[in-house]
Amino acid sequence: MNLRRHPLSFCFAICLGCLATVAQAQRDLTDIPEPDPVAEAAAMKLDSGAAVNLFAADPAIRKPIQMNFDCTGALWVASSKSYPQVKPGEIPNDQIVVLRDLDNDGVAESSTVFADGLLIPTGVIPDGPHAAYVAASTELLYFEDTDHDGVADERRIVLSGFGTEDTHHLVHTLRWGPDGCLYFNQSIYIHSHIDTPDGTKRLDGGGIWRYRPSTGQLDVFCKGFINPWGHIVDTNGESFVSDGAAFDGITYAFPDAVFKTSPGATRWLLGLNPGSPKYCGLEVLSGSHIPPEWKGDLITNDFRSHRVCRFSIRPNGADYISRQQPEPLTTEHVAFRPIDARMAPDGTLMIADWYNPIIQHGEVDFRDPRRDTEHGRIWRLSFPDRPLDPWPDFLAAKTPELLSYLEDESLTVRQFARRTLWDHLDEPSFFDEVNNWVHSGQDGLAHRQLEAQWLREAAFQPIETETAIAQLNAWKADPTSVPDNARAWLRSQFRSAEQTKVTDPANASKVMADAASLVEAAIDIADPALTLEVVVQCGQLDSEESAVWLHRILSRLLASDQPLSSQASLDFALWQSIRETAEHWQRGNETLQEIWEESPKTLAWSVGAVGSADAAKLLISRVEWDAPTSKAADDQWLSAIGEVATAEQLGSVLSRLLTGDSEQVERRISTLLASTSKRNNAAPADADSSVKQWLGKQKNEDLTASTLRWISQSTQQWKLKSTEGVLLSAIETRSDASAADRQIWINALASLPSPKANQTLMSIAKEGPVADRLAAIDGLVASRPGAAVPLVLRSLSKPDMSEAAHGWLVSALSRPDLVKRYTEKMNETELPSDTARTLLRAIRSAGGNAGLEQAIRKSGKLADATWELSPELKTRLLKRVQESGSATRGELVYRRKELQCIACHAIGTAGGLVGPNLVSLGGSSQPDYVLESLLDPSARLKEGYSTRKILTEDGEVISGIAIGQTEDATRLRLADGTEREIETDAILDDAPGKSLMPEGLLDNLTEAELVDLTTFLVALGRDPEFTVSTQNIVRSFETLTYTAEANRRLNRTSVDTAAQDDPAMTWRDLTSMVDGTVRLEEADKFKQHRQSPHISFLRFDIEVTPSDSNSEIATIALKLLGATPSAGDANSWDGFEAWVDGKPTPTWQLKNLPLSRGRHRITLSINRDEVMTAFGITLEGDANAASKN
């Protein structure tokens, strides 16, 4: 069939605008575009130097789902008009279409329907030029064209029994692995039960299958995910996955890994880009046509936001680090739905466009007339200034030539060379030629060794044990020589041995023993990536020997300076393999005993991983209960026991612990208490009886403070009752004990429900030392909140108890019955005005309650509480400024939103222009002047800030600062910072006005807060700590304001949306502190998804002016002022993500950032779980922070 040529070849030499906006809500979508590919292409925004053209479109293809090339360069496409559900009575006729570019011009001229009559085929992959595997509903099918006419004439069922619960979760994403296996995915709602010669294979929920066609072996590669529609294998043989319904971005996957939503999983791994949108399809960029800086990056598709995305990947120990890069392609065209991406033979990138304004068949009716069932496109992304990649004739090539292709830059060429070589495996001299090729030089040796091993695996060649062990020993001697592909090499060795269970059952035992010897040789190699593979294989071996090896590895890693938890994949794999081999190591052979004796925490870690009663029993049997002193091992083991033992086991442990001396009892029970607290305060069986029996043998006066501490803690944590007498005695007789100890006893007493305990608490709360009273009221608030109401209100007026009382009252806001009681009693109470002010502020900050707030205003007589500067007040305030005022606290008062200080006044370059710049106020003004300016601003108007009050002929009164006047008009700056021009002819009256600072603005401040604010203003420009630095610091920011719609947009798209001019995003000004740092507490938090960290957003503009007048580019550096806790390095940028002019930009590039002349916008997202301290940003190079005014 000939295709109509579309004259589309657009090269957009513009920078990516990153216009990833979300289409309107699906149900509200009414603006359905015409299905015109010319218009769709014109709307695309491309990375600089890229071009896009239409490779193929309807009617040749409709609704492409997956595509893969064959060795001749033909593109095979699975397409479905039936999705999301076939109509009742309709005979499905979905197709596999083969597209060919006959003249190599980048456009398909030929289209052939290879197979039809299918129902929603979700995957296709060629097996040579005349056959293909097809994923079709419940089956994996094999189609073959035996007469080479381009149409399949044979069809057979390869595997059947895959679930069909949801049509977009069916098995899909067929990919050839370099090991000769076919990999394919299934999603969360699918439950598959597949009969194979090796038994029934099952996968409930999502995961990736691995199938070896030559033997029929089928197994699960990894489990989990929600809807994984992307899987690739990189140059080092490692797997990466994208998920069309998760928010983790790119995920690193390895054998037996488990990811979220896997049924029955209690622990799982997460992806590399938390907070990302849903991605579909995945490809590795390679070859010489792709820009060099893109090679090795991954391409995936944000189908909801109409963009093709790019991520960089680099190893990080046993894990990987992934960073988003500028997108190759974005558009606002609502029907562009990229769902698959594949590298073409010529090195360009093909993008399958599902083309549909409607997606999400769970939200929009299956039969919604707006759904498009007819159209689809394949777009071709290229770089016209770079030569295309050559495409070999694989079918004509001999073995030596094919082997040479395995070193090609293009991973696509390598894979087709492998696939063709699989057909040469039976040649008598094949592996002689392979060996000659492997040893043809030192450069690239590790890569050739891996490729050769994959070929041996595909050919069922026995592993070369001696050669492999020699290689492992060399790596052990020099861990720095371990190549990045070592784990894939070792994995292939193990798989080669494992498949002999099918291909050579008689020798399988010996071969697996050889494989185990390789694992043993690798356990001490100090390379985390290789160690990950060894740990996985130990779990798969599931033997007594592998259990010992696991503990050797675990002991080594736990002794390392690097926490095991910082290596997520390795930590998980150890946890999983330790559990897999539990029945072996729980027997505790001699070698294990030696390991545990040398490293007690190794056993404790393993027991914690298994979390079973049997594992706890092993630890219980090892503790030396009668030892005169407690060993560190015992303490570590007791901690693990507390975390996993049953209540009965804990009860037995407690009984044994109580037989020791008091010091031993104290230390061990404290350890047990700490560990059981992690299990929601799990209590030992019969704990009350055991403790009561022990107390019966003690004298109260002999109990040490340390003993009383564990008695108090166990009373609360294990809900004991027998300790009441001891606690009452201690409180009554030990008045000289520390306040901290007495607080512990009183809190423990409050947990007891007895009348005697209540009576004692009430007595303490009314009289006695302040610390005791605070502890008693705190206990009553927690256990008897109603009885505590009058005590709390009485405490509000007591300076040494008021702060605690504020907290108690705020905590009652969630209890309507308590709020009612507090309101009633508050109306009968008189409060100092300062106390009422602070309490009112606290109540409002916690969500507020109108009735309670009114009662507080009444009790504090706030309606009459205004600041009037009498001579006596002035003297008192200035004295307090000198003696106790805090400029640090005062700066926080100054920054309060309700005071609007920042909106009107600048400090240096940051802030408003309505009032005078306060940058050096303290250096030029005396404290009395500052104080008077605050309380009577109109009496102290600074020159140039006198106001005018103008009455217009329309009767409008306008007040502002005159900033310009001509014969024709007067220009005023108003209180909100805006400017207003008034024509002279419209002015009826023009008189001097008052200060724009509203009267009574400070009336809600307490005296202490007013003193602190004055102290801060006096310190400006006077104290070095409050003098604006001359360093080039960014001081004016905007921060994203939280709204439900903004958070929804981030949830539905990605954090990238915050870097765009999205109308759903509202930004507000945020200035730095005087020292140049930003208070994160003033930035709103967003949380995209339940598992996502809290994030905040900042943005600012910079002006770049190259010092070389002949240059349009300058290299600048953005550096952090202050350090993040996670890194300790001021320039690490850990916890930040960055966008420059809307483009995702790796933070490491901020230290060496080339920018063109002019204004640029920097947007930052801040992970609030990682970045917890204030920070600032300095600029180095030919750039300055751009003025906002």
From TrEMBL:
Q: Which Gene3D superfamilies match?
A: Cytochrome c-like domain (1.10.760.10), TolB, C-terminal domain (2.120.10.30)
Q: Which UniProt keywords apply?
A: Heme, Iron, Metal-binding, Signal
User: Is Amino-acid biosynthesis one of the keywords?
Assistant: no
Coiled-coil ranges per UniProt: none
One family name in Pfam for this protein: DUF7133
- MF terms per GO, please? electron transfer activity; heme binding; metal ion binding
Instruction: Show where the Cytochrome c domain sits.
Output: 885-1021
Q: Does the keyword Isomerase apply?
A: no
Q: Where does the UniProt annotation place the signal sequence?
A: 1-25
Q: List the protein's name.
A: L-sorbosone dehydrogenase
